[in-house]
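Following up on my earlier thread - several people asked me to post the actual chain instead of describing it. Fair enough. Here it is, all 102 residues.
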Amino acid sequence: MKKELRIRNDFFDQDCINWILSQPNGSLYILLYLHLCCLSLHDNEAAIPYNVQWIQAHTPVSIDDNVIDSGIQLLIKAGLLEVNDASLVLPSSNSVVVRRAI
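Reply from S.P.:
Thanks for posting it. Predicted structure:
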């Protein structure tokens, strides 16, 4: 089954996105977030291992470990990611992106 990720047309108008973009490395954090959203499509439960090295190995852009770690913390603080056991999960209540089967 194919899955798709839809980004709302007002993605960059969301308060949480603008807040992240205003932070140092904000654009890298948004790129990381979008890539994590895409990675979540590969798993039926949309969970991603909370492992900086694993994320770095599966991210096509070279992002420093510290940037990934601080980005994840910021995305959690913004409510775009949640930690569940040893995994990162995109909240189902997240209205910024929508994952669905096609």
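The radius of gyration is 13 Å. That should answer part of your original question.
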